[in-house]
Amino acid sequence: MSAATHNLRSVLLALPLAMLATTAGGQAARDPMRPPQAVVGVRGPVAPAGPQLTAIMNGERGRVAVFNGEFVRGGERVGDCLILAVLADGVRYRRGDRVLEVHLASTGPSYMKPAAPLPGPPRGVDP
């Protein structure tokens, strides 16, 4: 083995050890490809501003909504809210002396269409 080959081999073997070595400050070297870590704040989780409407379903006995995590129909109570009606896209409720509505967020069209036309039969095959 020549001296140049021996030196190259030594450098290549030492490179991974150098990458694992700590910096002068005693901290491990930061991987530039690693995403930044989330900063932990002093504040706790932020509570939603009002009631949450997750879903509306049409069933045999009418519409049912998932309101604050509970299945409800008109006339039922969830906490301090009286459900007045389950609408096609929301819920009308009474809280105290106020009548309010909450609606589902629009997620775009409720239908799916193929991204491309479906392929025909393979060549040479009779349909």
Task: Walk me through what this model shows.
The chain has 127 residues and is α+β, with helices and mostly antiparallel strands. The protein contains 1 helix and 7 strands. The model has no long low-confidence stretch (mean pLDDT 75).
Please list the strands of the largest sheet in the order they lie side by side: 4-5-6-7
Q: Uncertain runs with pLDDT below 50, 5 residues or more?
A: none
Mean pLDDT, nearest integer? 75
Instruction: Please report the number of helical segments.
Output: 1
Note the overall shape: flat
Radius of gyration: 31 Å
The largest sheet is: 4 strands, antiparallel
Report a brief summary of the structure.
The protein is built from one helix and seven strands.
Properties at a glance:
alpha+beta, 1 helix, 127 residues, three-stranded antiparallel β-sheet, 14% helix, four-stranded antiparallel β-sheet
Task: Spell out the blueprint of helices and strands.
Blueprint: H1 3-20, E1 53-59, E2 62-67, E3 70-72, E4 77-78, E5 81-86, E6 90-95, E7 98-103
Antiparallel strand pairs: 1-2, 2-3, 4-5, 5-6, 6-7
